[in-house]
Amino acid sequence: MVQKQTMSLSKGIASLVVPPPKLTVSQWADKHRVLSKESSAEHGRWNTERAPYQREIMEAVNDLEVHHNVEKIKKSGLIEK
Question: What is 5-54 written as a DSSP string?
Answer without folding.
Answer: HHHHHHHHHHHHSSPPPP--HHHHHHHH-EE-TTT-SS-EE--GGGSTHH
